[in-house]
Amino acid sequence: MITIKSDHEIELMRKAGEIVGNTHKYLKQYIRPGITTKELNDLAEEFILKSGATPSFKNLYGFPGAICISINEEVVHGIPSSRKLKNGDIVKLDIGACYQGYHGDSAWSYPVGKVSSEVSRLLEQTEEALYHGLNAVHAGAHLGDIGYAIEEYANKHHLGVVKELVGHGIGTQVHEEPDVPNYGEAGTGIVLKEGMTIAIEPMLNLGTATVYMLDDDWTIVTGDDKASAHFEHTILVTKDGYEILTKR
């Protein structure tokens, strides 16, 4: 069921989103060669707890980490470990926080040290694809308008659009209806209404759009081992557009 949030619920989601955005800003200073993904995970969990929230992803569907941390060809759902970041990597931090029963969710991709020009373009273009999707949002727009805008931009830049993984509604659950694909046809799908809250999250690959899951039953990687980028914001649908709830 797709829910329309009350003013009180929106305020709680603003706070959850603020905590997520602040967690990203806090972690950015630690992203450097030599730090382990487990260290980043622990810093995130401590920060979220001190902010009066809990990590949304910890034990969600059995996930063992507080946040998802994916490197290079890993698209999403990487498990924090003793793996160290290296110069030239890109690392994706997917962070969720639950505040008084309501969730915020935002992923961002960061360069580690100096990355190649190809990877730098991937980061820039995937972030831009997110904003193309966001700019399609307003009350009265169709869900398919979002995916169409993202896919059209990605195709223009010859990036692979991951179709097995999608954005989602969000509120008292991390994942609510509706699914929000990063592809589609304009003018199709449900009509967006003021008060809906959704997470839009393009995942774009330098090469093939094909992905598969590793034996850990969590980590999704690209089919050709080329890099992938992931950018996500939780937003509120407004009469004339949208409000980003996970501001950085």
Q: What does this protein structure show overall?
A:
27% of the residues lie in helices and 25% in strands. The chain contains four helices and 15 strands. The strands form four sheets. Strands 8-7-9-14-15 form a five-stranded antiparallel β-sheet. Strands 1, 2, 4 and 5 form a four-stranded antiparallel β-sheet that branches. The longest helix has 22 residues, at 7-28.
> How does the major sheet shape up?
5 strands, antiparallel
Helix content: 25-40%
Average pLDDT across residues? 98
Structural class, judged by helices and strands?
alpha+beta
Count of individual helical segments:
4
Question: Strand percentage, roughly?
Answer: 25-35%
| Rg of Cα set | 17 Å
Number of distinct beta strands: 15
Question: What is the CA–CA distance across the termini?
Answer: 29 Å
The general outline is globular
How is the largest sheet built, in terms of strand order? 8-7-9-14-15
What is the chain-wise order of helices and strands? HHEEEEEHHEEEEEEEEEE
What is shown here, in short?
This protein is α+β, with helices and mostly antiparallel strands and about 250 residues long.
Write the layout of secondary structure elements.
Layout: H1 7-28, H2 37-50, E1 54-55, E2 68-71, E3 74-76, E4 90-99, E5 102-111, H3 117-134, H4 143-156, E6 160-161, E7 167-169, E8 176-180, E9 197-200, E10 203-205, E11 211-213, E12 220-222, E13 228-230, E14 233-237, E15 242-244
Helix pairs in contact: 1-2, 3-4
